[in-house]
Amino acid sequence: MPATRPHHRRSAHACQRHAFPFRALSIVAGLWRIADWNLGVQERVRWIEQALELGIGSFDHADIYGDYRAEALFGEALKAAPALRGRMQLVSKCGIRLRSAQRPYRVNHYDTEATYVRAQVEQSLRNLCTERLDLVLIHRPDYLMDAAALAGTFAALSREGKVAHWGVSNHSASQFALLQQHHPLMTNQLELSPLQMAALDDGTLDQAQQLGLRPMIWSPLGGGGLFTCADEQAIRVRAEMARIAARHGISLATLAYAWILRHPSRPYPITGTGRIEGLREAVAALDVRLDAEDWYAIWTASKGHPVP
How far is CA 213 from the centre of its chain? Predict the structure, then answer.
């Protein structure tokens, strides 16, 4: 039987030093690929209902997902079943100008100017059929960002009731600190998986603990590479994780989520699946607590060498 996570862990976020907008479980449903799921409106409504039934109450979007179509697909479901909005938290991201047929930029680039951030937030509100976003993240660090000016944009949109909380995604510790000194940030959304461990050493997770802010984690399954990659690292990691998962009686995916949840920054892993069974595997990780040897065994397999 899998080792159990102490019951209070499921609601620990209610006691943290800085209030976080997420309710329910520490698992966030990611909608990056919703345009590829080929679900009709009522099928999308049912998918959301099933996620909520599992205790997943937070849904992660970005303006550019699905070639700028993903938010509207989710919003159609909320328009068809408006009562669902009161049971969830909506997260979105902006700041990337991504080339598309409708947006023929010369190059992909970043933009954190007030006019663009405001326009994208207001478009996300329309797409998602809501009057307020619970959390908005700056998607990537903009090298031309004026931190004080961007903080002013945050403050204005918050005063107008359009955004409850702000954060960033993929920002270094110093980039986070620069913006944080001008406006309180709720989280940094980072990549972390048994195949991608840079966040363990680059100071971002240390900073999260220092500030008492829980990070969000994208691509916890390595974009599926945990199951499909054939390079030496992935083969080592799969073999080690298969042994540990068998001993705990859980799936490889559940073990990957449990490995992330074991970190003391108390992260929020973001799923990327349209399969309800995939959501169940993520939720199951909340009842698994790895010991240090299992956690480091996966680290060692990923790095290809023992700890120094």
Answer: 14
3 CA to centre of own chain: 25
Span 7-303 CATH architecture: Alpha-Beta Barrel (3.20)
Predicted confidence (pLDDT) at residue 12 exceeds the cutoff of 90 = no
68-80 pLDDT, tens digit per residue, is 999 999 999 999 9
* Strand-strand pairing, 96-97 and 109-110: antiparallel
Q: Would you list the domain boundaries of the chain?
A: 7-303
Task: Record the pTM.
Answer: 0.92
DSSP 193: B
- Token output for 30: 């990611």
Inter-CA distances, 283 with 67, 237, 269, 271, 287, Å: 29, 22, 10, 10, 8
Query: Helix (H) and strand (E) counts for the chain?
Result: 12, 10
Phi, psi of 268 (to 5 degrees): -105, 100
What's the pLDDT tens digit per position in 247-275?
Answer: 999 999 999 999 999 999 999 999 999 99
Q: CA-CA distance, 227 to 105, in Å (whole number)?
A: 36
Residue 65: active-site member? yes
